[in-house]
Amino acid sequence: MPGKDLYAILGVKRSSTKDEIRKAYRKLARKHHPDVNQDDPKATERFKEASHANDVLADDDKRRLYDEFGDAGLATGFDPEQARAYQRWNEGQRQSPFGPAGDAGVDLEDLFSGIFGQGRGSASEGRGPFGGARRGRRHRTPDAESTFTVSFLDAVRGHQVALAVEGGNKIKVTLPPGTTEGTRIRLPGQSKSDNPKMEPGDLYLTIRVRPHSFFRREGDDIHLELPVTIPELLRGGAVRVPTPDGAVDLKIPARSPNGRTLRVRGKGAARRPTPEKSAVHGDLYAHLVATLPEGGDDSVLERIAVELDALYIGKDVRRGFTG
């Protein structure tokens, strides 16, 4: 979703704190989640946009790059030092308009190659960064853009997927663990021309992530609504809960209220270590959802309800909600 202001998508200011960003995202995620907007085909796209914006702005490193360079700073393999050198050169601060080196001795040919994804000696149309023709070099096929949709679990776990490219050929692409919506992957030499005299260009692949039936992602953390019985809430006990790495036992404390959130550490998506976070994975959050029994004897359920009513005598559970 290049070109869209990520702060505007979440409805926050550029000076907003991380907590403000997360609160704004959670509000939008609840509003636009596909499970509650099945009749709105555009809800999934709005949900994806909000998820991508949160993935970037809730990550300190990604946010700094986005604030300085915009969408370009989020590209795989982006080199901020080369980009800053290019900006200084572009502002006219290089010593000689025709010299081979830019600011701080940066080779401008390498500089352009790093920023625009072109290998040294194979710039588009066989021309140098200043438009001059390069002798003895073949013309280069223009770079191409494509999108590829992967499953939620393949993105979270990291997976090797097969991709059909031009000419019906298939190549294998390895997704890094923790891949997020909008991740951009460069595939060198995969943009090809029918002209054998043309050097191949690069293919830039933008990853789309298909929503999961019950997992949802917020940054590096994964959330799910976990159905539980009334007795499990009252008595507590261990239940099996799914995670991207397989089911684990989760202990429910006795007398847990409906909607209680329990954390399973280290069972979220992979993330890069930062000074604030040394863990290599986020966490999984299970939100308990009381589920009434289906079928059965209605008279038994009525008797239980009457017995429970007696426990509420003299207790107003909605005190303070009188409006």
Q: Which CATH first-tier class of the largest domain would you pick?
A: Mainly Alpha
CATH architecture of the largest domain: Orthogonal Bundle
Q: What is the number of helices?
A: 9
The main β sheet shows up as: 4 strands, mixed
Shape label: elongated
Structural class estimated from helices and strands: alpha+beta
Rg estimate, integer Å = 27 Å
Read across the widest sheet, the strand sequence of neighbours is: 6-7-11-10
CATH topology of the largest domain: Helix Hairpins
**In which range does the helix fraction lie?**
25-40%
Percent strand equals 15-25%
Total individual domains:
3
Task: Assign the CATH superfamily of the largest domain.
Answer: DnaJ domain
Question: What is the mean pLDDT?
Answer: 79
- Uncertain stretches of 5 or more adjacent residues: 93-136
Span between termini: 42 Å
Order of H and E elements: HHHHHHEHEEEEEEHEEEEH
Total strands: 11
